[in-house]
């Protein structure tokens, strides 16, 4: 009997990767807080979860061509559907949409969620090791 890491870990591995990507995006927003015309961005967890669910069920999104002269989109990598621009609460004069208080709050919340995902994943690995040892 073999152990499948994908079935043993579930979505927790992907959630940890998402949290790391979101931390990078939020840190980029904070770093560009004084850059004129910079548009703040964020990742949407719900869209990432829906995409992973579709992949797990084997549903592929395909594009239909209505004319033979259209360029086929096979093999094209589309932009990340989870990465979206944030609507500012208070627009600035220089068109920068970064709100430092919101960014810091989101970064802190994401760090806590990352730690929770990491702790859960760590406990899953400990359980697998215990199962392999027969404890």
TrEMBL record:
A Pfam cross-reference name: Flg_bb_rod
Subcellular localization(s) per the UniProt record: Bacterial flagellum basal body
GO BP: bacterial-type flagellum-dependent swarming motility
Protein's UniProt keywords contain Heme: no
The entry's keywords: Bacterial flagellum, Cell projection, Cilium, Flagellum
Entry keyword annotation includes Membrane: no
Subunit details: The basal body constitutes a major portion of the flagellar organelle and consists of a number of rings mounted on a central rod.
Function, as annotated: Structural component of flagellum, the bacterial motility apparatus. Part of the rod structure of flagellar basal body.
Family affiliation: Belongs to the flagella basal body rod proteins family.
Name of the protein described by the UniProt record: Flagellar basal body rod protein FlgB
Organism: Aquipseudomonas ullengensis
